[in-house]
């Protein structure tokens, strides 16, 4: 019964991810990662003996230790990837803010040379 419950929960999470993707609340590049993770969990919940086999193959005494180690590695990888994405977004935002400031200055200079004071702060 616990195997079936795990299978149902993972399947529900996969449906939720696909629904978020369909409603465009999750970008495709992130959805692929979560779908792959979900399918791997679905496979492990359908065939728990795979975890025992992998633990024996890798020399891990308890399969649950292998599962926790894989989860920790996955979380670290996701955190690093999101940090990378955030750094890129911050760089792009800084460049855009600089470009807007330059354009505002140019428009203000054009307004002053034409004799029409303009207010771009609104």
TrEMBL record:
UniProt keyword terms in alphabetical order: Membrane, Transmembrane, Transmembrane helix
Q: Which InterPro entries match?
A: DUF2304 (IPR019277)
Carries keyword Membrane? Answer: yes
What is the protein name given in its UniProt record?
DUF2304 domain-containing protein
Task: Enumerate the transmembrane spans.
Answer: 6-21, 33-60, 66-84
Q: Does the keyword Transmembrane helix apply?
A: yes
Top-level taxon: Bacteria
Pfam families, per the entry: DUF2304 (PF10066)
């Amino acid at each position: 019964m616990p195997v079936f419950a795990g299978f149902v929960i993972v399947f529900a999470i996969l449906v939720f991810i696909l629904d978020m993707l369909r409603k465009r609340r999750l970008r495709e590049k992130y959805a692929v990662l979560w779908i792959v993770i979900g399918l791997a969990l679905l496979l492990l919940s359908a065939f728990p003996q795979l975890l025992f086999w992998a633990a024996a193959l890798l020399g891990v005494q308890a399969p649950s230790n292998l599962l926790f180690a894989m989860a920790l590695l996955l979380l670290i990888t996701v955190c690093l990837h999101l940090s990378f994405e955030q750094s890129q977004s911050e760089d792009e935002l800084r460049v855009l803010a600089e470009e807007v400031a330059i354009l505002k200055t140019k428009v203000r200079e054009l307004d002053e040379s034409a004799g029409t004071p303009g207010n771009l702060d609104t």
